[in-house]
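# step 3/5: fold
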Amino acid sequence: MDRIVDVFTVKGRSIEYSIVGKGDPVLVLHGGHSNCYEEFGYGALVEYGFSVITPSRPGYGGTSKEAGASLETACDDYAALLHHLNVRKVQVISVSAGGPSGIYLAARHPELVSSLILQSAVTKEWLVPNDKEYKAAKILFRPGVEKYTWKMISRMNNLFPEFIFKQMFPSFSSLAYKEAKERMAEGDIEAVRKMNNRQRSGDGFLLDLEQVNEINTEHLQAISCPTLILHSKHDSSVPLQHAYHADENIGNSQLCLLDSWGHLIWLGESAKETDEKVVGFLRSINKLELVK
């Protein structure tokens, strides 16, 4: 997959971004521990004629952590990037911990966002300070430590891919591993290995833990564009309540619950269904825009 990577500067803040594919623009706001080199779901988007723009969110990759001073600052920087790229209107896909960014962008810049897709997305309070996962993240993924955490994970994963996959599995799925195997595809373990090799947290994940508290029901209710909510019934990373919460509060939304094995809805036997739902929705919005 050919990928153009560049850096855009706005008000002294650097925004690293990538572009793959050619065609109607889609802005992807990636999940936690990721960056502009994300790959999940991109193959179908490029195949069906979309241009995928992915900024590394604040604190991730080459994007300044100062861009994450607030969701308002980050989303205004995304808007400036799109203006720089001569994109008048864009469809937005927000993934996992990138959910709050997409929600805030759609609420703050309705003139810019023609549709929103929430994929396994955080939409309300998540990982509060009393949670053991929050405490662990503060230690393992803090700047200065996270690169060694990911180096260890990737090294072990490269040596023992199936063993590490099984160890990580409960963080992705509420299913028993034996039950989930029926929903897995042949390449899933390899895809997770590759994911772990490209992941880093930088300053970004700790920013994510703070910024999730900046969105509320008023932001969801302010979203006027058509919104598709995709979530696995068996997601243990971001509980299913997040999908229900978004559907209840976004006026023009449709909820699609998937029977995928967990949080990574681009993998498994149901991956094709995920791609079809996403591409079908994006195409339907493009048709509406043409009518206008």
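# step 4/5: annotate
The longest strand covers residues 13-20.
# step 5/5: archive (pending)
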